[in-house]
């Protein structure tokens, strides 16, 4: 049975200062899929993600969440309808504890305190509930952001540079959480400059070049595609542990 479309973007175009950042981009993410959105710096990955979650409305094109057209919906409304988001920049509330971060986010999105103990346990932070977010390691902060973003069991989880600033062990642990979320039925989209980690998690990857989708393939085929090797992977070196 074919998996249902969780999120679909058609003809997305975004301009900035008269310059075209996204050029009629089409992206579909299915339930249970981990879709990698990869490409060199300046390709438009973060702009695409901001358009998908409602942080930046497109100049043209549509975004659908399941059967609903959410193109003009702001970020908070999409969050309440099942779109989780881990932005590229750290988004924890540094002076609040892990528990307070989880409660605050759940109140904003759902209007209740939720169950912070359960969310913390799910990401291995149950022993850190009363620790200030500013005292967490990079990997712990990312897991806290993951716990916040998956509050309410989202249908779609958009992750911009989730492996940034964390060591290989932390990256592997976060990768397990992302795969588990997809196995639960969520459509996961991620962009990251750590190519090996990203492709190890993905079930499919697209290459974004100059604001347009140039390649879409399974991870192994993606790595061997001439355009990927020539315009993208050739600019990176393997991470040294």
From TrEMBL:
<dbReference type="GO" id="GO:0005524">
    <property type="term" value="F:ATP binding"/>
</dbReference>
<keyword id="KW-0547">Nucleotide-binding</keyword>
<protein>
    <submittedName>
        <fullName>ATP-binding cassette domain-containing protein</fullName>
    </submittedName>
</protein>
<dbReference type="InterPro" id="IPR052156">
    <property type="entry name" value="BCAA_Transport_ATP-bd_LivF"/>
</dbReference>
<feature type="domain" description="ABC transporter">
    <location>
        <begin position="7"/>
        <end position="235"/>
    </location>
</feature>
<dbReference type="InterPro" id="IPR017871">
    <property type="entry name" value="ABC_transporter-like_CS"/>
</dbReference>
<dbReference type="InterPro" id="IPR003593">
    <property type="entry name" value="AAA+_ATPase"/>
</dbReference>
<dbReference type="Pfam" id="PF00005">
    <property type="entry name" value="ABC_tran"/>
</dbReference>
<keyword id="KW-0067">ATP-binding</keyword>
<dbReference type="InterPro" id="IPR003439">
    <property type="entry name" value="ABC_transporter-like_ATP-bd"/>
</dbReference>
<keyword id="KW-0029">Amino-acid transport</keyword>
<keyword id="KW-0813">Transport</keyword>
<dbReference type="InterPro" id="IPR027417">
    <property type="entry name" value="P-loop_NTPase"/>
</dbReference>
<comment type="similarity">
    <text>Belongs to the ABC transporter superfamily.</text>
</comment>
């Amino acid at each position: 049975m074919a998996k249902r479309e969780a999120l679909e973007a058609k003809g997305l175009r975004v301009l900035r200062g008269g310059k075209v950042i996204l050029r009629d981009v089409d992206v579909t993410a299915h339930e249970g899929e981990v879709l990698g959105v990869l490409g060199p710096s300046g390709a438009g990955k973060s702009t695409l993600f901001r358009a998908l979650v409602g942080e930046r409305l497109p100049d043209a094109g549509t975004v659908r969440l399941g059967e609903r057209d959410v193109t003009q919906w702001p970020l908070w409304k999409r969050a309440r309808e099942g779109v989780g988001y881990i932005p590229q920049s750290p988004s924890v509330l540094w002076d609040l504890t892990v528990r307070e971060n989880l409660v605050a986010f759940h109140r904003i999105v759902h209007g209740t305190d939720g169950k912070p103990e359960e969310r913390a346990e799910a990401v291995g932070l149950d022993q850190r509930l009363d620790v200030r977010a500013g005292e967490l390691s990079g990997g712990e902060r990312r897991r806290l952001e993951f716990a916040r973003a998956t509050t309410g069991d989202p249908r779609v989880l958009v992750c911009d540079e989730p492996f940034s600033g964390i060591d290989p062990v932390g990256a592997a642990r976060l990768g397990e959480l992302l795969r588990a979320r997809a196995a639960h039925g969520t459509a996961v989209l991620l962009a990251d400059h750590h190519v090996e980690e990203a492709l190890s998690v993905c079930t499919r990857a697209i290459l974004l070049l100059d604001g347009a989708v140039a390649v879409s393939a399974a991870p192994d085929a993606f790595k061997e595609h001439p355009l990927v090797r020539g315009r993208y992977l050739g600019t990176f070196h393997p991470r040294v542990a």
